[in-house]
Structures are given as C-alpha cells and as structure tokens.
Amino acid sequence: MGHKLALLPFINLNCKLMMRTKILTGILIFLSYLSFAQPGGRPNEIKKLIKVETERTALIFAVGADQKLYQLYLGEKLASDGDYKLLNLLNEAYIPAGTDNLFEPAIRMVHNDGNPSLELLFADTSTATEGDVTTTAIILKDPKYPVEVKLVYAAFSKENIIKTWTEIKHQEKNPVILSNYASAMLHLNADKYWLTQFHGDWAKEMRMEESQLTAGIKTIDSKLGTRANMYATPVFFLSKNHQSTETSGEVIAGTLGWTGSFQMLFELDNSNSLRMISGINPFASEYHLKSNEPFITPEFIFTYSASGKGEVSRNFHKWARNYGVLDGHGNRLTLLNNWEATYFDFDENKLTELFDGAKELGVDLFLLDDGWFGNKYPRSSDRSGLGDWQETKTKLPHGIGYLVEQAEAKGIKFGIWIEPEMVNPKSELYEKHPDWILKLPNRDEHYYRNQLVLDLTNPQVQDFVFKLVDDMLTKNPRIGFIKWDCNRMMTNIYSPYLKENQSHVQIEYVRSFYRVMERIRAKYPKLPIMLCSGGGGRTDYGALKYFTEFWPSDNTDAVERIFIQWGYSYFFPTITSCNHITTMGKQSLKFRTDVAMMGKMGYDIRVNEMTKEELEFSKAAVQNYNRLKELIWNGDMYRIISPYDEERAVIMYVNEDKSKSVLFSYALHPRAMNQFSSVRLQGLDASKKYRIDEINKMSGGRGPGMFGGGFQSGKIYSGDYLMKVGLSLPNNSELTSAVIELTEVK
Ligand code: GLA
C-alpha cells in the first residue's frame, strides 16, 4: 500500500504531462487544419463582399486576405449585409486543380510549358442591371500565367432564379489543355444532404429517386453526345438536413442548359462539406483552347427555397416562360399526330381522311410524322430513307404543298416531322456523302435504330440541315409546325471533319446544333417547333431557347404518363410538355384525356374509330381545354398529392389573381376498401369564394367510386375552407379521373 502511495506524486506528474502533451497536439492539429482550410494560413479577413441576390435568395462571395474568392453563403437572403461578414471563409468559390486542392476541381488546365496547375486570384468585378436581371461578373486571374476565368451570375429577381456560367480565356502562345471546365461550383454546409435524381430509359423517362448522400462522390451524368437525357436527366434537387416536401424544407434545384453529355457531381468531403459541380461532361472531352478564344460553358440554372419543392418548381416555371423557352407566353397549337395512328403505313388519301378527324375534334393542326420521304430508298420503315428529304412520290404524289392546302381547306394547319441530324446507311445521302458521318474509320459501323449521326461539326452538314428546313419553309410557307427528332446517341465517335481534335467532337456537335438553330430562328423566329429525341431525350434549357415545346416520352400509356409528366413538372412549365391522347394504355378515353390535359394537349389516335359518345366527349374536352389552356399554361402549379406517395395524383393550377383554378385528380390502383381522404387545396385566396364544377364528364367513363360521396358540382366554398378543410374528390375507384374547375364568385 505504502509503495503504491509513494508512487502517487509521480503518477500525478505523469498525468499532467500527458494532458499537456495532448492539449498541445490538439492545438497543433487544429492550427494545421486552419492553415489547410484557408490556404496561406491567413486570418478570416474579408476584403470585399460580392452579392448575387434575387428577391429572396442570396449567393454571397468574399475576397479573402489571400486574394482568393470564397463562396460565403447560399440561402435565404439576410436583412443586413453586415451579417454576411460574420461568416467564415471556408470554401474557395471555383477551385482550380494542381496546387493545394485535394478534392474534385472546378477547372483543370495544362499550360504551354507543361505545368498542370492553376491559381485563381480575384482581379475585378462588375455588375449590370437590366429590368429584373442583375448580372455580376467576377474576374479571376492566375498570377503566374496569362489566364483569366470569368464567373458570371445572372440573378432573376422576381423569379428567384440564378443562372451561372464560366468564361475561360488565356494569352499563352499555343493552346492550353482544359480537362475540367465546370459551369458552376457551389458549396453547401449542412448535417445531411438528400439528393433527388431523375433517371430512366427510353419510354421510362423521369423516374424520381431520392437518397441521402454519403462521403465521397455521387455523379449524375450522361455520355450520349447528341442529347443530354436517356438514362439521366440533367436536373436535381438537393435538400439540406432533412428531406424536403412540396411545402417544407430547404432545397436547391438545379439544371444544366446543355443538349449533350453532362455531368453533375456531388462530393461530400472529410469535413461534411458538399461541393456541387455541374457542367459539360469532361469525359473524353479534353479541350485544346486557343489563345484569346474564350471557352464559354453552358448555363447552370438553379433556385433555392426554404419552403420546399413546390416553390422551386414555380420559380423554374416563371423563369422558363419569361426567359428560358422560346415564345414562353405565346400560343401553342392543339394537334392530331399520325404516328401511333398509322406508323409508316399511310398515303395521301389516308392522310387527308385523318385531316377530317382533326377537324371534327376541333384541334388546330395536323402533324405528319415519320415516313413521308425517300424515293430511291423509301422510308417505309426505320431501316431506310433517313437523310433523303424529298416526298415519297408513290405515297405523296402531289407533295407537301398539296397536304398543306388540303389541311387548310378543312380549317386546320399542317405540321411535319423531320430528323435532320441523322442518316440511314440505306439512303442516297449516305451514298453521296460518306464523309459527312460520325464513325470510326477502321471499325465496323455501329447502328442504333438502323441509323448513324451526321457530323454536324462540319459546316457543310450545318448548311445541309439549315437548307432542308429553309427550303421546305420557303416552298411551303404556310407549314405551321415542325417536330424535330433525334433518334440516337453517339457511338464509335469520330469526326472526319475535326481530324486531330477528336476530343472536341461532343462539345462542337452541340455548339453546331445551336449554330444551326440560331440561323433557323433568325429567319423563322416564332414557328412552333417540338423538340423530340426518341421520346424525351432532349429536355433541357440549352435547346428550349430555340424550341417551343418538347416530347416527354414515347410511352403514352396514361398511367405511365402521370409519373413521367409529374417528373418533368418539377423543372419545366406545363406549356412545354406535349401530352398526347393515344390508345396505348388500357384506360378509359376520359382518363387518358384528363391526363393529357395537364400539359399541352394533343391527339395521336384514329378519330374514325371512336364511338359517337367518345367523339362527343373529345370535342367537348377540346373546347374545355381551349377555355382553360391559358390557366394551365401560365398559372401557378401546385402538386397536391404525389403518385409516388399514394395510389392517386392530384395537381392544380391557379391564375395570377387567384380568381380561377383547375384541379386534376387521377386515381391509380387503390385497394378496394381504401378511401381517399379529403384534399387540401393550395394557392387560392382564403378570402375569396369559389364555385366548384366538375367538367370533362363522360357518362359510363367512370363510376362515382365506392366512396365518391360528398362532392357536388355547383357548390360554393371559401378559399379558406378549401385550403384548411379540403375537398372530397369525386373519383375514388381504380383508373378514374376528375377535372374540377374553380371559379371565384363575388
Ligand atoms: C421517335 C419519336 C416518336 C416518333 C418516331 C418516328 O421515336 O419519339 O414520337 O416521331 O420517332 O420514327
């Protein structure tokens, strides 16, 4: 015992020493961490604040004492600028590779002398405001090399949207090599991060999936070349801390305006900080940038809300109608398309008969789809004729002009399908211009849908595509609509035109596509053109600048379409989504019609095979649609019940002064004894009174449902009641639907 006691002072001393050593080590680790987190080990001093702000959102940058640019803040706008200065300089805004960065960079460059590093220091900033839009440019320069990187942020105040892109320039003698060139790098700091992505395949577009991000990198990308989407759409939600709902939670929604291979990368680092990097997919696309020739990245468009996904969607919709989509507030044409009605099997007589159907329905236009061209190799299936844009004489002896006239004689317009970027090996174009095709010189050709991609990087091919459209519209100036298709991605990628710059093909292809569209739009500024890519492959804001609408999917089964259209509705306004009523699904005509109505409605059906009752119903539906289309296209959208959450979907649109609303309700496959609860509406004026009327009714089309009681057309409710208590909807049984119109009564 005594022996042990004698040891006590020594143990005590030893403990103290150990404690001190531990504290000292701790301090050293912390200091080294600080100097690592803030390169140069400088204090957290803010030399300059740069604000990018909309009405409600702020993206704040700061120049540190080390002259680097930091992203200080991204979120709900703070009332006082001084408060931003209390924040720490944690994340360099646009991180270059090659110096002290250990995670995924925004940019990587190899200089003429082989030096693979870049340092970006703040040089200058400028701001310009035009109406609702304030554009801030921040110029960063390398202190050792003549390289300039300009970060540009356009803030759309009312819409709460920020659009950002990067311009990279240098004055070195020879080209520099760019291997990363992000449109945007954004940083978030939270406990947890939830990513929602939209993936799929042909006829399975926009499947929504949410997951919590774990340490490391999560990438959403595509390597398709001619289109962004097929397996993944260039859009995402990122919710902070908790999963966001339609009406709650902090969420960022982003999308890339690029009609080609894209990459969105989310890296969760050692300190639980998140980097989000979006841009062109740098995969196999090293870019040799010439002196003084700016490399301008595509635009990354994003929005933030502290109150859920509904608001970010409405932000996108408003922005898109005002700025993102061609003729975003203009008219759109209802139409009858012949694709699913005839496929390739038609001739002049059959078509003019179909015009009668379009007229009877009361739609604005008839759209002639694939199969009208090619003579040496007629386009009687997808195996031949693509590229030979002359009317097939045996099918259409009097040409397109005659069809335009015949349609007009029946009081409708005429539109036509083209797929100008592609070629079948069985075509005259292929025989004449083998050097106009993207393919590896020493390997077998690789087909997808029996076709190949033209080398649009070649100016002669650009002229060919422009001329095809221009000649057709010059010869037939009254063509009222074009459907522009693109039915394959790139494989065996090699451009005979670009020769030694093969890693530029994917980028130059998309730029060339835009160049052609610029020329077309300069001459035909408002002609409605639908963007299609073997279903929904081109659904991005890079292309929508030139197009009035897009084709969401070749899957027109109405149940599938509810999910697909639901997915697009998060990022794209209703006016852009072409929804056609077809016979693909087994649902009632009413159900299919009601589903198509929640967007830009059209038909692809044999009208002459409709029963009298179906035809009467459809005629009335077209009239209802014409009455409500302004509201559906331009109203605020509220997703009330998601088909991902329940065996039903409910969505509504409210006009600006909240005097009118329309609600769509679709029951999917509820269990027999399930009763749907009342639905609380959103977006109405609590102090207004509304009359509810069920429209698009079809006798026999649906039963009232087992528990359909409670709903009565003509009843009047206050907005307050409808939003707090809710409405019991009339369709409760399997595959039934209802369209409810709400009108203010004074
Ligand atoms: C693609 C489109 C369809 C149709 C066909 C024609 O698949 O998505 O709508 O136009 O091409 O071949």
In short:
The protein has 746 residues and is α+β, with helices and mostly antiparallel strands. The protein is built from 13 helices and 37 strands. The radius of gyration is 29 Å and the shape is globular.
Describe the structure in your own words.
- By secondary structure, the chain is an alpha+beta fold.
- Strands 6, 7, 8, 9, 12, 13, 15, 16, 20 and 21 form a ten-stranded antiparallel sheet that branches. It has an eight-stranded parallel sheet with strand order 29-28-27-24-23-22-31-30.
- Helix 8 (459-475) runs parallel beside helix 9, helix 10 (558-569) packs parallel to helix 11 (589-597) and helix 11 packs parallel to helix 12.
- The chain binds alpha-D-galactopyranose.
- The site of alpha-D-galactopyranose has 12 residues, from loops.
List keywords for this structure.
746 residues, alpha+beta, 10-stranded antiparallel β-sheet, 8-stranded parallel β-sheet, globular, binds alpha-D-galactopyranose
SSE order and pairing:
Elements: H1 2-37, E1 46-53, E2 57-64, E3 69-76, H2 81-84, E4 91-92, E5 107-110, E6 121-130, E7 133-141, E8 147-156, E9 161-170, E10 176-181, E11 184-189, E12 193-199, E13 207-212, E14 216-221, E15 232-240, E16 251-257, E17 262-268, E18 273-280, E19 287-289, E20 295-296, E21 299-305, H3 309-324, E22 335-337, H4 339-342, H5 348-361, E23 365-368, H6 399-409, E24 413-418, E25 422-423, H7 428-432, E26 452-453, H8 459-475, E27 479-484, H9 505-523, E28 529-531, E29 549-550, H10 558-569, E30 578-581, H11 589-597, E31 600-603, H12 612-634, E32 636-641, E33 648-654, E34 660-667, E35 689-695, E36 716-718, H13 719-724, E37 737-745
Parallel strand pairs: 22-23, 22-31, 23-24, 24-27, 27-28, 28-29, 30-31
Antiparallel strand pairs: 1-2, 2-3, 3-4, 5-10, 6-7, 7-8, 8-9, 9-20, 9-21, 10-19, 11-18, 12-13, 12-15, 14-17, 15-16, 16-21, 17-18, 25-26, 32-33, 33-34, 34-37, 35-36, 35-37
Helix pairs in contact: 8-9, 10-11, 11-12
